[in-house]
């Protein structure tokens, strides 16, 4: 495997502090402050790529492994954010580890929330998305001295010796998502597509442009209607935006949303409009149904990091990058594609991986 991990793409506003199972600890308070200083972690084995803490995965040497997860989003959204927590829970269960999890953490609370996790003697602090970057300074504080950190990356996160950064390029997966949608549209003689998302910010505008460019690689005359509802989790707003696009004759809608994804997709289903997933494989879903799964789930990347952690090989101070057409994720699949469509998509993804297709150049050329 050439690389692992991914960047945080979304934000969320729903409050969530979930209960625990037999293997899980309770949600952390975000009101904690740093306790008395603790001894710094042993520097451990040094490698060309970074540092492997001594004793990993039991970094703090207390005889147990505890993973602390903080997410800025709704960890019951059946998609992007939930996949991160579900992966952590499944892996922890298989290893007899403990998980402490907290969802819907406001960015202003990130630093104290991370300190609170460290007070509970976690061996790893894992951020569910880069929106919580303000927590990172805690990794250098005595309270978090005996922890490893996993951080989904974006361009403005600085690498430090205490954290593992993970990233990918959104242009790649979103261009491929548009290409897959274009294949469906071309076979049906359709030219109108839609994109429903939350706030109008960099990650949503970038995704919309790449999606549009991908469609136009197949259907040059295609148009894309983009609606910014202002909230990734508000189902009422998502349905209103989806209905407006359906009324305009859109035949493919990408609900690039969080907790509101299913509300938008169900409305699209009821009107015979094709849909795509924002991050996870839901081709087997029956309510709602999806025509294309766009896979850039943070859970898929996080699992690779946890496997490295369990094997005492996770190198702090490094960054890993997932690449379309090179690694297993990100990728795109047609849920019910014809053999010809599947082959075309497979070839397109391979061409991105080989460098034959330059996603940034295509987005610049066709995404405006």
TrEMBL record:
<comment type="similarity">
    <text>Belongs to the BMP lipoprotein family.</text>
</comment>
<dbReference type="Pfam" id="PF02608">
    <property type="entry name" value="Bmp"/>
</dbReference>
<feature type="domain" description="ABC transporter substrate-binding protein PnrA-like">
    <location>
        <begin position="64"/>
        <end position="313"/>
    </location>
</feature>
<dbReference type="InterPro" id="IPR050957">
    <property type="entry name" value="BMP_lipoprotein"/>
</dbReference>
<feature type="region of interest" description="Disordered">
    <location>
        <begin position="35"/>
        <end position="59"/>
    </location>
</feature>
<keyword id="KW-0472">Membrane</keyword>
<keyword id="KW-0732">Signal</keyword>
<dbReference type="InterPro" id="IPR028082">
    <property type="entry name" value="Peripla_BP_I"/>
</dbReference>
<dbReference type="InterPro" id="IPR003760">
    <property type="entry name" value="PnrA-like"/>
</dbReference>
<feature type="signal peptide">
    <location>
        <begin position="1"/>
        <end position="25"/>
    </location>
</feature>
<feature type="compositionally biased region" description="Low complexity">
    <location>
        <begin position="35"/>
        <end position="51"/>
    </location>
</feature>
<protein>
    <recommendedName>
        <fullName>ABC transporter substrate-binding protein PnrA-like domain-containing protein</fullName>
    </recommendedName>
</protein>
<keyword id="KW-0449">Lipoprotein</keyword>
<keyword id="KW-1003">Cell membrane</keyword>
């Amino acid at each position: 495997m050439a690389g692992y991990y991914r960047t945080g793409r979304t934000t969320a506003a729903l409050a969530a502090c979930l209960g625990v199972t037999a293997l899980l600890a309770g949600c952390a308070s975000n009101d904690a402050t740093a306790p008395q200083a603790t001894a710094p972690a042993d520097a451990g084995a040094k490698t060309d790529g970074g540092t492997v803490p001594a004793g990993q995965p039991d970094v703090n040497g207390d005889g147990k492994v505890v993973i602390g997860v903080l997410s800025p989003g709704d960890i019951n959204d059946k998609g992007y954010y939930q996949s991160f927590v579900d992966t952590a829970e499944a892996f922890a269960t298989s290893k007899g580890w403990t998980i402490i999890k907290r969802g819907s953490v406001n960015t202003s609370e990130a630093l104290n929330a991370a300190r609170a996790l460290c007070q509970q003697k976690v061996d790893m602090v894992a951020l569910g998305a880069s929106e919580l970057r303000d927590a990172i300074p805690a990794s250098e504080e005595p309270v978090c001295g005996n922890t490893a950190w996993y951080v989904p990356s974006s361009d403005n996160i600085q690498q430090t010796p205490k954290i593992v950064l993970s990233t990918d390029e959104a242009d790649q997966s979103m261009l491929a998502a548009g290409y897959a949608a274009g294949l469906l549209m071309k076979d049906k003689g359709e030219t109108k597509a839609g994109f429903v998302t939350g706030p109008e910010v960099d990650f949503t505008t970038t995704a919309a442009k790449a999606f549009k460019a991908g469609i136009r690689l197949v259907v040059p005359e295609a148009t894309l209607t983009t609606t910014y509802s202002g909230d990734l989790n508000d189902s009422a707003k998502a349905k209103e935006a989806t209905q407006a696009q359906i009324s305009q004759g859109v035949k493919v809608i990408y609900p690039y949303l969080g907790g509101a994804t299913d509300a938008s997709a169900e409305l699209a289903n009821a009107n015979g409009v094709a849909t795509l997933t924002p991050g996870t494989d839901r081709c087997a879903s029956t309510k709602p149904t999806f025509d294309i799964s766009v896979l850039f789930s943070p859970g898929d990347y996080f699992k690779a990091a946890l496997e490295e952690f369990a094997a005492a090989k996770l190198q702090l101070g490094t960054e890993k990058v997932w690449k379309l057409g090179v690694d297993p994720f990100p990728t795109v699949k047609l849920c019910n594609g014809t053999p010809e469509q599947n082959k075309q998509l497979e070839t397109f993804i391979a061409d991105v991986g080989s460098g034959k297709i330059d996603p940034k150049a295509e987005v610049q050329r066709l995404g405006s």
